[in-house]
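During the reporting period the student researcher (J.K.) took over the structure-prediction task from the postdoctoral fellow and processed the backlog of single-chain submissions. One of the processed entries is reproduced below for the supervisory committee.
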Amino acid sequence: MSHAQKRAFEAAKVAQQRREGRGGPFRDAFFKSRDAAGIVTHPLASLLSNSSGTGGGGRGGKTRVLLYISLLWVAGGGEHTSHRPASFWAALLDLENPDGAGSRVIRSTWKELEKRSLVAIEPGAASGDVPTIRALREDRSGEKYTIPTGQRGDTYRRIPELAWRILFPSPDLTGPGLVMYLISLRTHGQANGGEMTFPRKYISTEYGISDSTRKAGLRNLVENGVLIHEGTSKETGATSTRLRGRNVYTLTPNLAPPSPPAPGSE
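J.K. obtained the following structure tokens:
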């Protein structure tokens, strides 16, 4: 962790001190939702691509996802807005030269997120002023962000704060790895913290992720010690005689979702 990134991380923690230790929330609608016309969309998967496709994405896709979920963490209280300079976000994500090239990357990424209806940019009063960034809902509806309730239809996951310290700044974490990590947080909850599988057809249907992205992401997470490959399970096929293997994983404990808050504490 660079000195600049450490300072940004500590500033981010102060910004959401009321929920310190509970991590950053994001709705399940970020994975899959329906637009106004009833068409199924996959907001997270779409961020990987420079267009609206579901390609594996490069560094730009990783930065778009990271910047958006970081905004939800830092601006989780009040009006869910941030008035921090681009250099702060560049340092938090550990981009090179946060006061120069890194800031330019952040400014262009905010504009891209605005095009995708995930943030609203409110210019400052004078030219050159730091703009206010307002978080919008994870489903790309364009509605203002609100804290998820956890009730049916508004379920959510939490990213542990440690991810911003040791995982997200890592140059070894790829865009597919980041997306599969977010998916693993949800899968971890569905598996009650136990063993997890990521079937190809289910991942494609539920998350809009291509098989190549799924495989690349899982491989990246195993190589970085985020997921532990526990081996291969065997399941009886449709004929009750054909066995097929399915890779089984567990999530390393320090990067697992934080414990849910006590009722009424948020």
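The committee noted the following: Residues 51 and 57 are 10 Å apart (CA to CA).
J.K. will present the remaining backlog at the next meeting.
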